[in-house]
Each structure stands twice: as structure tokens, then as C-alpha cells.
Amino acid sequence: MTRQAESLPKSWRDRVNTLGYISGGIESQASMLRQILGQLPCSGESTLIWKNLEGKEVSARCENLCRSQLSAAGLVVRREKEGQWEASEFAVKWLEAPEPEALAIHFHNNVKFIGELLNGIGVKTSQTDLFNLARDTYGLPWSSLDQVRRRTGWLRSLGMVELWGTQVVRTPAGEALLSKIELCSPEEAKGEVAVAEEVATVDSEAVQYLSDTPEMDQDALRGRRPLIGYIPRGTKSASRDSDESSLSASEAVRNLISLLGDGMTTEDFRNACAEQLGITHSSFQSTLHALRHMGLIEQVAFNVFAPTADAQWLTDVGNEQVLVAFLHSRYSFFGEILKVIDDPSTTSSLTTQAKERFGYAQASNGEIRLRLGFLQDAGLVERVDWQRFRVTGVGKAFAELLSLQKESVAAEAQVADPVPDQEDSPRSLIGDIVRDLQEYGKDGNESKAFEEAIARAFRFLGFHAEHLGGPGRTDVLAVAQLAPGDSYRVIIDAKSSGSGIVAESSVKFDALRDHKRKHKAEYALVIGPDFATRLKDWSVENGVVMLQVEDLVSALKRHALSPISLRDMRDVFSRPDAHRDEIAEQYAASERRSLLIGKILALALQEAVDNDPIASGFISVENIIYALRKEVTPRPTADSVRECLDFLSSPLVAALEENKGRYKLADSPHNAALRLRGIGASLVSESRDIAGE
Fold first, then answer.
1. Which tens digits make up the pLDDT trace of 263-283?
2. Rounded Cα gap, residues 383 and 12, in angstroms
3. Is 464 within the bounds of a domain?
4. Does residue 635 fall inside a structural domain?
5. Containing domain of residue 597, as a range?
6. Using one digit for the tens of pLDDT, what is the confidence trace for 91-132?
7. pTM to 2 decimals?
8. I need a surface site. Which of 91, 199, 325, 647 has the fewest CB within 10 A?
9. What is 380-412 written as a DSSP string?
């Protein structure tokens, strides 16, 4: 092995999940890579041209290929000043001596599940087996075989593996490679083995900053602000481990306070931010709001702002823990994160827990990610991998010094509502349905009760659902009562199991086909606690969706807050091979719409209470879009923002007032919520009259 191949492997958490793909054929990857690297450096607008092993010419825009497919694995880098892409230091050396083994080792050192995939190849190993190994044993969040196929494709092009029919076979070169690399254990990959850490010590004097504020009782904790807002982090910083082109959260705030100095006018501060930190004028107002509400800057004269008395001290290097303690006293679900992520957790899972366990209804991935940034800067949390975080020993000790919001109180706050519950409101129905599904689904002696619970669940989802049962009939028939051409029927077979696994012999696909014909149904669905592996494979072949009880429970909970339409639900039933991904995406889209509406209304409220004599509470569509782009992931489109603004300013909602393309708050969010609730109650009442319920 030549010296150019000798590089230190990154820790598992620092390796990337994604391996790129070059168009032109899976077995031509290495050959095509050499041709591409030979054309660098070049500008992003240039066109790169290469040929596959069969001589077919392929081309792509340099920017798209390098950024999307080659940069993550460390094969190319961008030269910022010239705006050009060039081969990385490794790639330059590899081109001089393009040994297959050297490239394979480079991939293993920088990309997850390369050597581990090689090691996982046994007798009669398929790509599906390797996918299951990656997902179940190494905890990789993949939902398809794509990333496994890319890895085996690259390894095939390097002569490390071969494909015999559906079997992946390791070659002698692949065997030799395994003896030269260090593999990651599944425990380390899944974050179950903590790396050695120093004895946890916390500067108690720093945390005592909280003692100078009023006692943080539960009322005060529940009353903290929900949104930090927009903190721009566009300047380069080598210390940013998750995004090398961004400052860390604490560094970004420190730069802004330092730039403001002893104080300056809004216009001077805006221009300074644009010139020195790259903050656009349209984003500046959102930044100003965030710093004011953080308590780090204040208005000292008309149109003049300056740092608060403690701002410099709070943001000084070395005082990151002090800043966290300060922010915890002002913002919801801050220090509480340290109690929640004892097990490695993703940003999305923390967002869900913030809503469900602490009543933080406005939680979003962007807000949680920003909090994690401050906590990471203070050494209180660490990354397990690119998606998951866990608390450090220092973080555990730090959490003990904080006054934290109680979960039980938060849960009560989350369901608190000024309007009394209806007997059959979503809140009163959902608990009973979930309890019965979970209890009866694992009780083989309560099949009828399980079937009835499923029927109630599908009524909650908006279907006209009947519990039938009996010989020759489906257990539950769910009908989407829509206009002709849109309506459809679903037959549902309920399978409870005392062992928690529905056996292969329990599902009769011939009977399901008969039930579909008899009830004139378009789709067939089997619901149970879990299913034998081969049963899942057979279900795809027979066009039957196998839905686990916990997936149905999750859908019900999400439906109560952000329901999806019966038309969208139809897409779920038409995907037996990927129904879980489909339903998750449908609900995620609905939740994003609801989140966007809430963010816009919160922004309008913030603008209204800021008492800006110039803007008079109005904010333009462009400024709304810029303010939201860092708070909502993925970034909302201009059309989606305008749809929400039209909705909120309509006479039915009357939450916003529009004037020449600008918007301001017209009523309290509380009243807008009551107005919508009244409309919803009327809709339910009228629909029941029509259905005769």
C-alpha cells in the first residue's frame, strides 16, 4: 500500500452516511472518477464529460456533480475565492497512483458502512441482507436499498466484491482489504458505548448566574419564550463540526455583540452586519429581533441599540455554560434537553418529545437544532453521528444545577384549552383508542375487541368504518366517502398475537383477495403488533399493506393535530412496499403547513409587541420569508408562505390584516384559535347530520 493511501479513519459519528454516485453505470464508478478528477479544477458552471466502460459519453454540470456526489466523501473541495472545484489532497495523490485498495480505504475512513459491509458478507448474502445489517445492527436511518447498492457498486468497480445473481460475494482483494482496516463495532455505531470522557466538572459559580434572577418556579418555566429566532451563521469557522461553512451558535452571537460595540444606529449596525458578517438587509430585522428578545441588546435611544450590561460577559469565550444557563431561563425546552437525550436522539425525536412531554407546541427542528448548538458549544451534549446527539457527563452534572420544567405539568399545559371538551372530541377519543389497540393487539383472546378498536381508529382518520367480522367477511370495512371517482374502500384484517409477532400461517392471502372482491374494495390491509419477516415479503408480492399497531397509533396521534386527507391516505394504501415512509411523509407535509401558520402568526405577534414606530407592526412578505427560512425545515416556498398569509388574513380567520402586500396582527392568536375551533365544531355537527349518526 502506498503512502498516499495512509490516512487516519474518522470516528464513526464523523463519517458521512451518504456515498455519491456517478451516472454511467455502477461498475464504471472508479474509472469515471479518474476521468472527472483529471478535469479539475474548474468552475461550477463548467460541464464535465466522461465515458463509462462501454464507451458511452456522459456529462454533468460541475457544481451539481461535485457538491451533490463527490464532496461528502472527501474527493473534491471548493476553492471559495476563485469559485472553483478542485480535487482534494487525497484525490490528487490517488490520481498519481490510482490503486483500488487506496480508494476503498479512503471511503472506509470517511464514509459509514464500507468495511463493515465487506465484513458482513457471508454465505448467500443479498443486498437486502446488507441493508438489514446497516439499519438494524448499525443503526443507519435508511429506508431503501439505494445506499447499499451504491456501496456494493463502488466496491465492485474496485474489484473488492462481485455480484453473483442476487448474492454479494467478497473477492480475494476484499479479503485482503479487511485485514488492513479497523472496523467499528455495532455498539459504538449505535451510540451504546460511550467514549472515554474526563471527570465531569461544572463551574458552579457560573451557573449561579441564575440565582440573580427571580426563582424559576414551574409557572415561570412554562412562561418562557418559545422561539429564539434567526441567528445568522454564514461566516466560515473551522470549529463548526456539523457544517464547516458556519459559525457555531455561541460564536455567531459573540460576533454580533462584538460588532455592535458600545452601540450604533440601526442603519449602521445593518450595514456593518452586511459588510463584515454577510447578513443581508432583508435578514437583518429578524436578527435584531432575536438579539433583543435574548436580552443581549437593548434600545438606548431612538433607532439606536447597544449591548446590555451583561452581554459581553455572557458571550465571552469560556463562558458558554453561563450563556446556556441564561438562555435556559428565557426559552422553553432548553436545559430540559439534557434530561431527555440520555439515549442518542435525533433532532426530530427531540422536537416530538418537546411537544408531547413538555407542551412546547411551537417546537421545530430548527429551534431544537439551535438549542443543541449552544449546548454543544458548552460541552453539555455531543454528537453520536451526523443525526444523533447525547448528553455528556458534564451535561448531566450541569442539569442537576438547573431548575427544570416538570413533564407532568407540561403535559397538562399542552392539553389545557379554554373551551370545554366535547364528549367525543379528538382529545377524549384518542386515548381510549390507543389504549385498546395496544392492549388488545397483544391479547390473542380479545380478537373482537381488537377489531372494534381498529374500526374506531379508522373513523377517527375520517373513514366510514364498519366492524363486520364473521365467516366470509372482512373484520373491518373502511370507506372513504368522497365524490364519484375519488371514493375507495379498504378491507382490514385484524391479527392480534400474544407473542407480539403475527405468524406466517395466520394470514391467508387468498381469503384477503376474496374479501376484496366481495366488498368491492380497492385495497387490503392487515393490522397486527408485528409480522414475521417472510410475511412482510409476501405482502408486497400480494399487494397487501402490513400495518403495525404502533405505526397506526403514531398516525392517530399525528392525525389529531395535523390530519391528512382521505385522498392522501389513498397513496399510503397503494404502497405495500413503502407505506410506512409514505404515511410519514404525508403527515410531515401536513405538520409543516401547520407549523408554518404558527410561525407566521408568532412573527406577526412579535412584530406587534416590538413597538417599532416606523413599521407600525407591519411586515412585508419578503421579510416574513427571510425570517422563516432558518426556522422551518425544509425552507418554505414563497407560494406556501403566501397561501398561509391568505388563510390567516381571510375574514373567516381574521388573524392578520393586509395592506399593500404587508401584514400585521389583527387579533390575538387565542381568538383566532377559538374562531377556527368553532368552525370545526360546526363542520363535525353538519357532517353527522348528513351521515345520520
1. 999 999 988 888 877 777 767
2. 10
3. yes
4. yes
5. 588-691
6. 999 999 999 999 999 999 999 999 999 999 999 999 999 999
7. 0.47
8. 199
9. SEEESSSSEEEE-HHHHHHHHTS----HHHHHH
